[in-house]
Amino acid sequence: MPASPNLLRLRRLGIDTYQEPVLYMHRDCSVCRAEGFEAQSRVELCLNGRTVIATVNVVVSDLVAPGEAGLSEAAWHLLQAQPGELVDVRHSPPLESLSHLRAKVYGHRLGARAFSAVIGDIAAGRYSDLHLASFVTACAGDHLDLDETIALTRAMVNVGDRMHWGNGRRVMDKHCVGGLPGNRTTLIVVPIVAACGLLMPKTSSRAITSPAGTADAMETVAPVDLDVPAIRRVVERTGGCIVWGGAVRLSPADDLLIRVERPLDIDSESQLVASVLSKKVAAGSTHVVIDVPVGPTAKVRSASAAATLGERLHGVGRALGLELRLVTSDGRQPVGRGIGPALEARDALSVLRGEAAAPADLRERALRLAAEVLELSGLAAPGLGLARAQGALDVGAAWHKFVDICEAQGGLREPPRAMFREPVEARHAGRIRAVDNRQLARIAKLAGAPKTAAAGLELHVRLGDRVEPGQPLFTLHGQAPGELAYARRYVDAHADIFEVAPEG
């Protein structure tokens, strides 16, 4: 067979495009001109039997030569390329599922077949970030009804792998819908439940719109990028795990959608339900406790909103064979002291170790959720789960189980500490009457979290506390002076982060 006329010599450009494969072609490249490729064209890259679909960026400088194909880091790793190899560049096949995407953009309902087509193409990497953003936006704002949410969830399960733990086994799980900084109960609940003899293979996500996801916090103390065989070995050995779901093909389309939800700062109700429950089904869970924090600056703002979300979760859960229990909790202020991966992990470790200075609110929340899991499983009778969970924590069984889980996942380590810290002090005397969760989360992100694990902030006051002028409200933590200064400028410009009411 004659050689393809579309062969270009590979060059690694070392550009981080945040997981999106990108091809850089010179505007005078013969392939670019002959095929009519232009900026944002979608092309197939074929190399040694591997195919990756990438987005074209046209270069007008000498970054790449006319006969070269410059690759982003994501494209380079997916192709498993070597410098100087020849890659075949072709037009990508037409995406038939884009008609369904356009229909949703215009407000039409989609059926199961349409969602399967869209999610199948997303999981296969055929959608650009522009397409993904369009899909996320078209489905946001309560634009999916219950049947559509069920269809979306099923489609997300079906495009990936599924774990099975044996017929008749009750496989426990828990999840928090988010919006409450520092609510890192999973690191405590999983070892309590596993120490009581139940199976709890917990796959968690990284941060979407928050300064830390469970996987981000857990990664500061143990590896979380385990494949399915490794997860199975850890769970069979210890009864539990806390791993990153994005490292395995359990609802893989969800991780691609999260990639664009994060910069868009969008996490809509239906997509939240589909994301959470698709991961639970794919991980083999049968019984799930879901924590729904409710507060004026939490993700769920009111009791009525919590009820609406609960109905959607229960409806989708029933359709997919899950037994769910929802727990509404106080979402008026952050949980624990730390906000940011390492700081939140430190809080959890202090609870597990039984330290006197451990955050009491984090301990109480974790015990309540563990009790709900134990009672949902049938291991503890109604009303007796709390005593069972507290016993496992107080005698050290949960801490030893956590150590076992960490060692099985690759080794326990202490979370890192930030190099730079700066206190933020009260401006006047009074009592803390309100806390803005969203602004605190934003400040932690401006300080570098979650990308910089040690970054974030540490709280020193809670609702109802009396403060004096100059008393520290919280301390910023950062690894770079510039990021710390950036966060501090935001703090100085927003006096409403803590509402301090004068007394008398």
Which properties best describe this structure?
504 residues; alpha/beta; four-stranded antiparallel beta sheet; 18 strands; globular
Descriptive overview:
The chain is of the alpha/beta class and 504 residues long. The chain has helices at residues 30-35, 73-79, 98-105, 112-123, 129-139, 146-158, 186-195, 214-219, 228-238, 252-264, 269-282, 303-319, 341-352, 360-377, 385-394, 397-409, 437-446, 481-493, and strands spanning 7-12, 22-26, 42-47, 50-59, 68-71, 86-91, 172-176, 200-204, 240-244, 287-294, 323-330, 338-339, 420-425, 430-435, 456-459, 466-467, 472-478, 498-501. A 6-stranded mixed beta barrel has the order 1-5-2-4-3-6. The protein has a 4-stranded antiparallel sheet with strand order 12-15-17-13. The protein is globular, with a radius of gyration of 24 Å.
